Amino acid sequence: MPFELARTIGYRAIWMSALLLALSTNGSTQGLTVHDPGVRGGNAGAGEALPGISGAYNNLFVAGLAKFSQEDQVVQDGLGPRMNLNSCGGCHAAPAAGGSSPKINPQFAFVNSADHGNNTLPSFITRDGPTREARFKKTSLGNRTDGGVHNLFTISGMKGAQGCVLQQPDFEAELARKNLIFRIPTPVFGAGLIEQIPDRVIVDNLNNPTVQPEKSRMRVGGRVNVVVSGNTRTEQIRTQGEPNRNGNDGTIARFGWKAQNKSLLLFAAEAYNVEMGISSELFQTEREENPTCQFRPTPNDFTDPTKVGTFDLLSDIEKFASFMRLLAPPQPSESEPGGPQSIANGRNIFKKTGCVLCHSETLKTGNSVIPQLSNQTAHLFSDLALHQMGPNLDDGISQGEAKPNEFRTPPLWGLGQRLFFLHDGRTKDLLVAIQEHRGGKGPLASEANEVVKRFDRLSTKDKQDLLNFLRSL
Ligand code: HEC
Ligand code: HEC
Question: What is the number of the ligand closest to the CA of 448?
């Protein structure tokens, strides 16, 4: 056989076996085309206290972590009567306490556990799917704006909840009429740094004059979510004669998928009430007031001055907020996946492509009583602002100033260890997450359209380097 021919056949054989190997291990041609390298191996690089936290502050962190991880019970803890799960740590679990959805959905395990009460599992909660919270776009009766969280489970039939009879909402009917949207947990690593970024820094970054020409060329805008006092529900609801509920102070809100909440204490108290059904000094009212389902006085969680000298003096919501505030940001890897050169090039491509026009690499914190939070650079990859994201991502819900098609640029730190992406956890694949940024025309166009077009034109190598960079975070 002539040498050239032998070499061609040899190459072809190697190529074919590589293809077959890729097909047999991954069910796709992964390895030959651009692909999301998947969850980065190695240690979590998250879940610890801020570096240098010690003494009383470390004890507070440990007490907060214990409360955050605790699974609450019906009678003694005031769980429910309606809830989505029985612990913060269940939903904020991966890759460590404070994170996002774990591999095996704890909501699935909760309903299938020994004491699951009369709950049935909604079809959109699966064993391997993301932990979810469900919102209705419109009210189930009539067609008025809703937007609120409707809890998946009730305590009905659970140990200690004798006499309480509640029905779960008819999720399948709402699903059939396309009235349901989902949200997955946002991780809280580094949340103390995010909380400590002054409004001024967010606005200056958004209006940074050196970036403006590039932003207008790429048609990227953005605005902050200012929760105007008395305007936290939509205009429509107010004009329909609903009571005005819980306004804020007119400063920039920054936590949550729509940057709808101002502070960690506020989010902790809201989550305690909305996700777990536990009322507190900040949210006094039980969301389900059926008198046969109350097994503990309200508020369920409170400050206890008789516990002076211990952290149990603090209410649970203060403990949650302290834990999250003192939780370190995720540690990126310098070499995994793909090696340091690929990651360094990926970081450049991330900037050159324009991802950075929304996912700002860093923001600086202001003065804080906690030195580790004071004048620090947060490598969060977010401008904490709202952007119009087009019809693919539009969820039909308004929160504060955020319209249905507007979302906060999510911080990308910790992406390397994340399992599910986008507000409803619709994908595990970074390539899909990027493509979903695209859509819409004219006034409804996604602000990321031009950037995704640029991404599409990148070489295979640059695309792969960008994905490696994202998974190194
Ligand atoms: C059933 C799952 C679930 C439970 C339980 C849960 N969360 Fe969450 N958490 C979520 C979801 C979903 C979001 C995103 C909500 C949104 O933006 O619409 C979230 C977002 C957050 C955020 C915002 C972080 C950011 O930067 O955007 C904080 C803070 C938070 N949760 C704290 C808590 C605390 C504290 C508890 C316990 C009291 C808790 N959560 C319990 C699902 C859960
Ligand atoms: C116009 C602003 C904007 C631009 C430009 C942009 N993003 Fe995003 N990005 C967002 C917003 C907003 C979301 C959240 C959308 C949602 O969940 O509905 C998001 C979500 C993501 C997510 C999922 C994060 C999570 O927590 O689930 C990834 C990954 C991501 N972007 C990467 C990129 C990359 C890579 C680029 C450049 C090719 C890019 N983005 C360009 C605004 C932007």
Answer: 2
